[in-house]
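Quick question, first post here. What does this chain look like in 3D?
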Amino acid sequence: MGDPKRPRKKYETPRNPWQEERLKEELRLVGEYGLRNKRELWRAASTLRKYRNIARSLFILTGEERRVKERALIDKLYAMGLASSEADANYVLQLSVRDILERRLQTQVYRLGLAKTPYHARQLISHRKVSVGDRVISSPGYLVKRGEEYKIRLILPAQTRA
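> Answer (accepted):
Ran it through. Tokens below.
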């Protein structure tokens, strides 16, 4: 089970840590999406890697088993807002880290115009000024599900005192 005081890492570091091109791309993404550090980027990459591995494993299956597992994967990605309902396993392999980063609450708040910059969005979220529906979310890395985009709103100071 493991020690509860030492949680598992939710990301994998790059295999070749000093590739110049990868470092430049990571830095560009960290700045564009207002991430705190590269660990947040690596977490998104690990999430994407997990779904791509599942999609790759579907190609060796045939018949009804493949259809059932592929439908389950696509339904999950559809609920997350990463794929359309008509997508297939090939589409999952075309997803990129940017697709995952676009679903983060921090990016959604910035894209909706509720914050001036991604960093401002991050501050609003961590200071508990943003809600999704009735829930106040304080994690900028929260992945917004399909249907929750229109429920994102700022909490005004008068509403917090009630």
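The first helix runs from residue 20 to 33.
Helices lie at 20-33, 38-58, 63-80, 89-93, 97-102, 105-111, 118-126, 157-160.
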